[in-house]
Design a protein that fits this description.
The protein has 213 residues and is α/β, with parallel strands linked by helices. The protein is 54% helix and 14% strand. The longest helix has 16 residues, at 197-212.
């Protein structure tokens, strides 16, 4: 039996994945976690073959978790299942150490296919994303899209700003100093061509709303 750990902060999503996996005779769910701390405990306690990980987690991002798992145990395969924009996150996910990315809205058979693809040693991405990576697609001026230019940490800060989280709360949530958060914000404004904190807030909010639509 292949042992699978489900990491998602929504209990209903975990239940849905567990039922889907439970219908496969050669797969079993060995544990569930809703945040980074519990996920790391479950990794140590259950030794899964594969972890299915959401990008939005309490106590840290899915990207952070992927890097932590990769540094602790390189034998654990990881597949990201998320609602975030694949074109923005897929390359980051693969660079962090995961072996695939699938949108949660995909049909059930595609999710099982993605799991089996990763278990077989292959990378799973949507066909559109695969084509994009193979063609080295960039925008008309030959550079990266502006949001693509953000580092993983800058993107995490940008996302939290869009969710209405204050700088002090971001610092507390990410276990960083206010000064570090302000430095990240300055870098984000420069990369996105924004002149003020107000413009940064408005841009982040619009982006966050687009991610939910």
């Amino acid at each position: 039996m292949t042992r699978i750990l489900i990491v998602d902060d929504h209990p209903l999503v975990r239940t849905g994945f567990a039922q889907l996996i439970g219908d496969c005779p050669d797969l079993e769910v060995c544990g569930e976690a809703g945040d980074m701390a519990e996920a790391l405990k479950q990794i140590d306690a259950t030794s899964p073959d594969l972890a299915i990980i959401d990008l939005s987690l309490a106590g840290g991002s899915g990207l952070d978790l992927i890097e932590r798992i990769r540094s602790r145990n390189k034998d654990i395969l990881m597949l990201v299942a998320s609602m975030h924009d694949e074109t923005l996150y897929a390359e980051r996910v693969l660079a962090a150490g995961a072996r695939g990315y699938i949108n949660k809205q995909e049909a059930q058979e595609r999710i099982i296919h993605a799991i089996r693809q990763v278990l077989s040693g292959k990378v799973y991405l949507s066909q559109q994303m695969t084509d994009r990576l193979l063609s080295g697609m960039v925008d008309a001026n030959g550079g990266k899209r502006d949001i693509d230019s953000l580092s993983n940490r800058e993107l995490q800060v940008f996302e939290l700003i869009g969710e209405g989280v204050s700088s002090s709360q971001i610092a507390e949530q990410l276990n960083l100093s206010i000064k570090t958060i302000e430095t990240h914000q300055a870098h984000i404004k420069k990369k996105l061509g924004l002149g003020s904190a107000h413009e940064l807030n408005q841009r982040a909010i619009r982006w966050a709303m687009d991610q939910q639509s």
